[in-house]
Amino acid sequence: MLVDQGISRVTGAPRWMLVVSIALVTSLAGALGIVRATNSQMDQVGRVSVVTPVLSPASDGFENYLLVGSDSRASATEGDEDFAVVGSEATSPGQRSDTLIVVHVNTKDSSVATMSIPRDLWARMGDSNTYKKINSAYQRGPDVLVRTVQRALNIPIHHYVEVNFSGFKEIVDAIGGVRICVPRASRDKYTGFYIGRKACKLQSGADALRYARARHLEEKVDGRWKLEPTGDVGRGNRQRAFMSMLAKDTALFLARNPMETSKVLTAFASAVSVNEGLDLIDLGRKLRPMGDGTSQSFTLPVDSDMSTGSFTFTLNNDAQPLLAFFAGLATAPAVG
Question: Transmembrane ranges (predicted)?
């Protein structure tokens, strides 16, 4: 079954940073009549010009957006409450793509679908013949990452959206926190995430980031802590569920606090970088299904592989129908 079951199991569980909400924030801001302020702040969003030449030309009937969560520590400071976990540029130099999600927008019927790419997927880097884990492609540049994704999955990427660690926390804090729901007591000793019972709990930006980065999530079953078995694939599931929850909480916050729109937009503008020519207001309108619960969420079928000398993933044969859909060549795989 290709449709992500993690959504219903951990409704509201964070995953990811969601950039997606950026769009929803800007869209709602426009609807509230704050168009002038919105456009002014969106002009401050960073533009990643290097990806422009490698993005795919327009496709008939659909668009694919690559959402990237960067794990760069460049903006981390010792005053951050999660500094001990996140670390600094000195202890973790460079940057990798901690999160990779493809958002597929059908421009004919306005439907939206998302698919996570496991960071340990084994892939050729850019146009080279060198193979590495796909998350390392970002170290060579966003353009290399885009080429790597397009080549590995054989799908077009039309637009690029990136959020950094610190920016993610600022976005969540700007809306007063995001609800994270867990089906039972959950923790990750590596990131410091912890909720001690089945609950939906409002989390700060730092706590949401702890959850979003969790790769060693444990759940308490019959009084004992047990490692959640789905690993990086499960993390992708939780990240996509979090995208929807962040979108909903952002829209709810702005509806209740319209005068706070400027603060929220400022957080988004400072946290996000996108390809040249991307209209975030237009993107917000297109991504509304992510906020109202009508979007689809898919898990990329992969197999575990140790042939490279370390743990990696390779594409499963069952991935082809899903990738054909994201390539605009087929309808969405059936649910169930």
Answer: 16-35
| Bridge-based pairing state of the strands 112-116 and 296-299 | parallel
- pTM for the model: 0.75
Question: Which CATH architecture group holds 6-304+311-317?
Answer: 3-Layer(aba) Sandwich (3.40)
Say how many C-beta atoms besides its own lie within 10 A of residue 46's C-beta.
Answer: 13
Indicate the DSSP class of residue 253: H
For 143-165, write each residue's pLDDT tens digit: 999 999 999 999 999 999 998 87
Residue 147's CB is within 10 A of a number of other CB atoms, namely 23
- Which residue from 9, 19, 180, 2 is spatially nearest to 101, judged by alpha carbons? 19
To 10 degrees, what angle do helices 205-212 and 165-174 make?
A: 130
| pLDDT band with cut points at 50, 70 and 90 for residue 50 | very high
What residues are paired with 112 via a beta bridge?
105
Dihedral sign, CA of 76, 50, 23, 233? Answer: negative
What is the share, in percent, of the chain residues with pLDDT greater than 90?
Answer: 42
Residue written as tokens 């929220």? Answer: 264
**Backbone dihedral angles phi then psi of residue 264, each to the nearest 5 degrees:** -65, -45
- Strand runs labelled E in the chain: 46-47, 62-70, 97-106, 112-116, 122-124, 131-133, 159-164, 178-182, 186-188, 193-195, 199-203, 218-221, 224-227, 272-274, 296-299, 302-305, 312-315
**DSSP states of 283-316 as a string?**
HHHHTTHHHHT--EEEEPPEEEE-TTSS-EEEE-
Say if residue 3's pLDDT is above 60: no
More confident residue, 149 or 21: 149
